[in-house]
TrEMBL record:
Enzyme Commission number(s): 3.2.2.6
Catalytic activity: NAD(+) + H2O = ADP-D-ribose + nicotinamide + H(+)
Transmembrane parts of this sequence: 1037-1058
Native source species: Cajanus cajan (Pigeon pea)
Protein name: ADP-ribosyl cyclase/cyclic ADP-ribose hydrolase
Superkingdom, natural source: Eukaryota
Amino acid sequence: MSSWSIRKYDVFISFRGEDVRRNFISHLGSALHRGNIEAFVDANLEKGDEVWPSLCEAIHDSHLAIVVFSENYADSKWCLKELVEILHCRKIQGLAVIPVFYQVDPSHIRKYSGTYGEAIAKHETYFGDTDNESIQDWKAALTEAANICGWDSCSHDYKNESHLIEKIVQDVSQKLSLRSPVQLKVEDLVEIEKHCDEVKQLLSKNQKHQFQENVQIIGIWGMGGLGKTTIAKALFSQMFPQYDAVCFLANVREESERFGLNSLRGVLLSKLLQVEHKYDPEESTMKRLSNKKVLIVLDDVDSLDQLDVLCRQQCKYAGPNSKLIITTRDRHLLRGIVDENEIYDVKPWGSAKSLELFCLHAFKQRLPKKGYEKLSERAVEYAGGVPLALEVLGSNLCCRSTEFWVSELRKLDKCLNLRIQNVLQVSYDGLDNLEKNIFLDIAFFFKGEDKDDVIRILDACGFCATSGVQVLEDKALITISYSGTIQMHDLIQEMGLYIVRGGCKDPNKRTRLRDIEEVSDVLENNKGSDVVEGIQLDLSQIENVRWKADTFNMMTNLRFLKLYVPSGKKSGNVHHCGVFSKLSAKLRYLEWNGCFLKSLPVTFCAKMLVEICMPHSHVTELWQGVQDVANLVRIDLSECKHLKNLPDLSKASRLKWVNLFGCESLCDIHPSVFSFDTLETLILDGCKKLKSLKSEKHLTSLENISVNLCTSLKEFSVSSDSITSLDLSSTDGSNVKTLPASIKDLFSLRILSVENCRKLGSLTELPPFVTELNAMNCRSLRTVSTLRESYGIFGVKSRFILFKNCVALDEPSLHYIMEAAHSETKFAASEINYKFVKVCFPGSRVPGHFEYRTTDSSITIDLPPSRPDFVGLCLCVVLSHSWGMKNLGAKIWCQCYVANGRRLGPATTWYDEVVTGLNSDHVFIWYDRNHSDRILEIYDTGERRVSFEFFVTNAIGQRLTIGTLECGVFLIFGQKNHLYHTLVNEFFVSLMAKHAGLIFKSFIRLDKNDCIDINNQERDLTEDGSCSCDCLFGMELTMLFCSVYVIFCVLFFIFFILNKKPVRKKNSWHLHFDTLSMLSFARLKRHNLRYLN
């Protein structure tokens, strides 16, 4: 039964009839009746009713129970059974229990002494068993009840029995009001059980951090109107019967302002101690709480002073297992008092429960009335899951016609309901001036924008936005999404808009403008003033407007100007007359989509500018000469077809992002864009006239650079430690002939595409970490340097190498590619998480290392007898450039079968997309981890013979008649692992040597004659595990490693070694490095082995 269910009785009275029926109980019953309190006594039983079931039903159907312990109470088994049932309901459904000790000593009940001890002894004699379950339950119930704070008739605090009864009735009335507070209406109980259960789960956890030793504290936090107080009230009404001293202190913020904190503290103490309201800070008064289990709820706290005055001393003296619940709009207040996981975050309601609550107020039922369904959905959508708004709107629309509903909902689009406004604005009123400016800017301009971008712009306005945004989040005025964007509830945003609009009826006298009609009026009629700080206008919402040349002249304090067009929409027509002569020098953000200006006004000062965004504009240049743009971070001039050059940005010391996509007239990039090495992103796609892109220095910050479709680009010389992806491809063909030699230093580069670079003649030494190389249709490409150095890299789980239609490749280059494919597939099979290797290059034969090959479409092989020897396999297909292949495209597949024709899982494919446009025969090599693992599974069946069928399909899976010229299978064996580790080690040593070259250049001498034969070195290691120190470490250092950088490299190298298994031969452990990187260190001059020790 719910704690808030309607009950038949207010009070159930348990008593021993022969002791107190005709005196105390009769007087108590009369007093309760006069107080309109419905009480159940056994006299209420109807004739013929079964006694015990009726008593149980009455107990369960009561809000509160009074247990009158008299001298002979324990003599009655009925009384004891009642007591057990009452305490059971106390535990299960929160039944409030008030014990009355009528002319008996509570300690006799607790210790089973006096008449209570005699009664228990009689029951034990009757049952003949002292361990009888019923007797044990009765004794436990007596002890528990005697420990509950109650009323003692023997106390001198009462003048007479009548005075005692008066106090008991007052206590009952108070507890009934706590159980069912007037403010907690039935409609408030929608969703309330769910919230209460979740808060109770927080309270049930063992807290590691407590404000005071005996008190567990949780916070209930959320924006205004979400029902924090309602949740706290409902929770309090459920929990208070379990506590000795309780207090729900409502409206702490308002009450402390009206009466002061000391007065409020007096109210708290008087409720906890049940004494007359007075402020008594004496420690002796506080100590009266020391033996009490206390429950305190502080509602709507908004300052640390309130917590300090109202909590600290009370919590210090509260008894064990006490609880403190705090509701607040400010999450920061709870930090340091509770942990983050002890704060209950109240969120807006879902649509179903929102509709239910709205309908309870609008229609006095849980579903909309017929004809009001759509209107109800509109109202619920407007409320945005805020219970307060749902209640206010529902009550306002109750018993109204559909015409009234339509009119009222239309009005809400322009004006927030005043009651909702007042509740929400409390959080805003608690902000300082800078925080208020931040809030209003977000409400008008930045909702849904990236948090870092917003902070950067607002910081430039002098608003200290980092801390300000955190304060707004703590006060539940904004939220930060998982993607890092700033979100704001629609009602909160409406409140912010109302604050600005409500302050002045004349739009040109408002600080911020975003309403389409108001902005259009101000700009068209030149009504701007120095009051205006920000303007936002959706240009797709206007049709034809005409702006004068001096439109912005009077707006000298304009900080923010956003004239934008949403994605997928088209701008209206903006006409202008004359030459624009002025823009505010205080602009921090300038966005003007489709700007008709050829350049910004000559008088424009960009010193404060943080971001300029002018896509699809007519500008040919931003400005002439050098501007002091130390605050400039982002430039977006995408699709500015007439832009010819960028200005000198040699003073843009914070520039991070430049987008020049589709600037077809752009001829060159001023080298100053790279001056300060702060640039992170440079987008130049579609700059068809751009001929050269060159940086005079190696960069560290540039992460993304794109020059796709730059068909005139002849010189590209930009390098950076941070570039992860480089796309030089072009659908129309690129003029790039060579890549800069410095490209080998791009150690962060993972993806390199030179697709359609038809004049590219060679690929010099590539960066070591490239995992995807696309050189498709590089028709002039003749030479490719060795790719071997890039294999065996930490974190690399796939490789994709594409040289499709590179028909000019010479034999050494093809050999390098085949060697790379061979080494990489062998390494991939030895690594647990490696997913795939896919390689394509021109050729008419399967490479020679494939021991199984055929000109048919299928091949059958026998697997090795021992599974540990076999770690995977590599597949190869040679496709012809037939007409169908060239025009329709094809997908290459391989299906594996066992001897009886059963398929081994699904077929594996070289690539998920079709291969098209082959100009010659091509070799396709691939390794698929999943496919290899399925084949390894047949060892469990005892089968060893497998068949591989190679075939070709179109994009929808239909088999094509295109034949395969040749197919091959290469088995990979486990004993070759030394070679893979050799490749890994050699790579890292060479990488370390490159980085540390300058440090060692003065004292390292290379000797090419030392240890060149890797096979001899490996054999020397594995035969006796010792090898020649002169051979492996032919290097003599004149000093120890003193460079911090080198120490880092060595530690990194040791980390790699620790993941390898030791090689143990002839009980020799001193070469515990597997093949280590000895093979690479062998290239360095002499060194004594003792330096490793």
